Amino acid sequence: MAAKKDLPLRVLMIAAHPDDAEYGCAGTVARWAGEGRQITYLLLSSGDKGSKNPGIRPGTLATLREKEQTAAARKLGVHHLIFLRHPDGMLENTMALRRELAGSIRTVRPHIVLAIDPWRHYQTHPDHRAAGLAALDAVYAAKEVNLFAEQLVDGVEPWRVKDVYLFWTDSPDHFEDITQSIGRRISALMLHASQAGKDRKGHAATIRKNAHETAQKAGVAFEYAEAFKHLKTG
């Protein structure tokens, strides 16, 4: 489908693990992809610690989860994925990670960044906090000509992201209509079999219930919604 002329075309979704997007913002991703936007997934880790099964080794699990994420992304209309492969459960918002993400932003040149809200109340997962903070710090750095200037060679230039939308937020002020795309969100999530298991009906019911409640609380006219904190950065 051709993109509408007034739509920001390129979107970069930055998250800590495979499945974060499918649990957090995949209905929006599916709808935007259907509108013709070019969406890239950037995963900081491959979820190599995300199992309670002592019989599966981290390397094997990481390979499996990358395959699951690739299939889920394709279900949503996303065909470009970047796996940074940092250790799961050990992410830190270091200067090195900020540099790495700023380089990706300057290469992908997104108009919009989707990221985890690192300031969500009582967010206990350190990877989620680190991923959100690193993404926001990188958005700032990517536009500054004197930050990580060694990246600015061979045609790479500073890049200013226009908008950031934070998902898993306690302070939403922007709501996306996912009424037509919630089915694809559910189907994509179930492709993460190592995490979601086989309880499709249970997951589907929970996602529909939460998305419907989000729409009701927002007072919007559509049936299902995803909530974001919108930061204007451009």
What key phrases describe this protein's structure?
seven-stranded mixed sheet, 18% strand, globular, 234 residues, 8 helices, Rossmann fold, single chain
Strands, helices and their partners?
Elements: E1 10-15, H1 20-24, H2 26-34, E2 38-45, H3 58-76, E3 80-86, H4 95-108, E4 112-116, H5 126-142, E5 163-167, E6 174-177, H6 182-190, H7 193-196, H8 200-218, E7 225-232
Parallel strand pairs: 1-2, 1-4, 2-3, 4-5
Antiparallel strand pairs: 5-7, 6-7
Helix pairs in contact: 3-6, 4-5, 6-8
Describe this structure in words.
This protein has a 7-stranded mixed β-sheet with strand order 3-2-1-4-5-7-6, with helices on both faces. Helix 3 runs antiparallel to helix 6 (182-190). The longest helix is centred in the N-terminal third of the chain and has 19 residues, at 58-76. The chain is an alpha/beta fold and 234 residues long. It is globular and about 50 Å long. The chain contains 8 helices and 7 strands, in the order E-H-H-E-H-E-H-E-H-E-E-H-H-H-E.
Summary?
41% of the residues lie in helices and 18% in strands. It has helices spanning 20-24, 26-34, 58-76, 95-108, 126-142, 182-190, 193-196, 200-218; strands spanning 10-15, 38-45, 80-86, 112-116, 163-167, 174-177, 225-232.
CATH class value: Alpha Beta
Distance between the termini: 27 Å
Strand-and-helix sequence, N→C? EHHEHEHEHEEHHHE
Return the domain count. Answer: 1
Percentage of residues in helical conformation: 40-55%
Low-confidence parts: none
The mean pLDDT is 94
Inertia-based shape:
globular
**Corresponding CATH superfamily:** LmbE-like
Spatial order of strands in the largest sheet: 3-2-1-4-5-7-6
If helices are DSSP runs of H or I spanning 4 or more residues, what is the number of helices?
8
Largest sheet: 7 strands, mixed
Strand content: 15-25%
Q: CATH architecture, please?
A: 3-Layer(aba) Sandwich
Radius of gyration from the CA trace?
A: 17 Å
CATH topology tier name: Rossmann fold
Classify the secondary structure makeup into a structural class.
alpha/beta
Would you count the extended β strands for me? 7
